[in-house]
Design goal:
Elements (H helix, E strand, L loop, with lengths): L1 H21 L2 E6 L5 H17 L2 E6 L6 H13 L4 E4 L8 H8 L4 E5 L11 E4 L2 H15 L7 E5 L5 H14 L17 E6 L4 H14 L5 E4 L2 H13 L7 E6 L2 H8 L5 E4 L2 H18 L5 E4 L3 E3 L12 H7 L5
Parallel strand pairs: 1-2, 1-3, 3-4, 4-5, 5-11, 6-7, 6-8, 8-9, 9-10
Antiparallel strand pairs: 10-12
Length: 331
């Protein structure tokens, strides 16, 4: 009897161990763990992992562009048994050698939101078409400015960022200004753009950048912002200068707070993207890889929509009610 009981315990323990061993381990590394955009991405990954029976481990940079923390996270996750790692690269070039290292160990690496440089450094990319997002708000801004001489300030991300360049250049293309192609990481310039400043996508830095731009040219009547925090900072600077009512601000992200700012008239229009969807699709691909051994590849466009309560003929858009219903969480 004791033997049978011991044998049964051993069988059950073995079954439990096999079950745990079969549980796919998926890593998610974001640029930071404080930006609401990446918090939403983590939320989407956690929800999908729980739904599909996967174990999710997370990590992040301490700040946007913190490569060393992301390198450590990649190495630790690979050592912990993650066979799929999702990453929003903070430094698109510097992270590549470590990605190549873990891929040689059989780990599937999927970039979310931001491409690596080169894009082929990862197995796949799930992201917004950032150039298209820029084109959407650029085309809208051109209609808003019809009949006015554009005096433009751009609040960009930081030098060398593929996302920053694609959004900036896409905006210029949509506006009708000469612009580099989506493959370029250089910011295009034009005489209509009287001030270009880096904001790091941060509200306080966006406010300072806008204050500096207004000192350079107080006649600015259009602001392109890399994201909604930078746009909110620009609005505060404009408000301090008494210019908030006669300057249009366009941005990209479409977070719930950003959509509220569109409804309040702080931001004129924003291009909405879907980070929860990016993360969820990445987790799905990771679970499928664990079950079938098949890796995903290539670029997967997760969609973008223009959100504004001031629609203009000729530019497809949705109102803020749609934007609030869909903000960052659409599957």
């Amino acid at each position: 009897m004791k033997f049978r009981l011991a044998a049964l315990v051993a069988v059950l323990a073995g079954a439990a161990g096999a079950s745990q061993a079969a549980e796919p381990v998926i890593g998610l590394i974001t640029k930071t763990d404080t930006n609401p955009y990446f918090v939403t991405m983590q939320k989407g990954a956690k929800q999908e992992a729980a739904k599909l029976g996967a174990k999710l481990i997370t990590g992040s940079g301490r700040f946007d562009g913190d490569n060393s923390s992301q390198v450590t996270a990649l190495e630790n996750m690979s050592a912990a048994g993650a066979k799929t790692i999702l990453i929003t690269p903070g430094d698109s070039k510097a992270i590549v050698p470590t990605i190549e290292k873990v891929r040689k160990q059989g780990v599937m690496v999927i970039a979310l939101d931001s491409p690596t440089e080169p894009a082929s450094a990862v197995n796949a990319l799930y992201a917004t078409d950032n150039y298209q997002a820029g084109e959407l708000i650029g085309a809208y801004a051109a209609k808003v400015m019809k009949g006015k001489k554009p005096v433009i300030a751009t609040l960009d991300l930081f030098p060398g960022s593929p996302v920053g360049a694609q959004r900036h250049n896409g905006f210029m293309k949509g506006f009708g200004l000469p612009a580099a192609a989506a493959s370029s990481n250089e910011l295009s310039k034009d005489s209509d753009i009287v001030c270009m400043a880096d904001s790091d996508g941060d509200q306080a830095k966006g406010q300072t950048a806008m204050q500096n731009c207004l000192q350079k040219n107080p006649n600015i009547n259009l602001v392109y912002a890399i994201n909604e925090p930078a746009a909110a900072g620009a609005y505060q600077a404009l408000k301090q200068a008494g210019r908030e009512k006669d300057v249009a601000i366009v941005a990209i992200d479409g977070g719930c707070k950003g959509v509220e700012q569109v409804a309040q008239g702080i931001i004129t229009a924003t291009a909405q993207q879907y980070p929860l969807k990016m993360a969820a699709l990445g987790v799905e691909a990771g679970v499928a890889y664990a079950k079938t051994g098949k890796m995903v590849s290539g670029y997967h466009n997760t969609g973008v929509n223009l959100i504004t309560d001031k629609p203009i003929a000729g530019v497809a858009s949705h109102g803020t009610k749609f934007g609030m219903r869909m903000c960052w969480g659409n599957r």
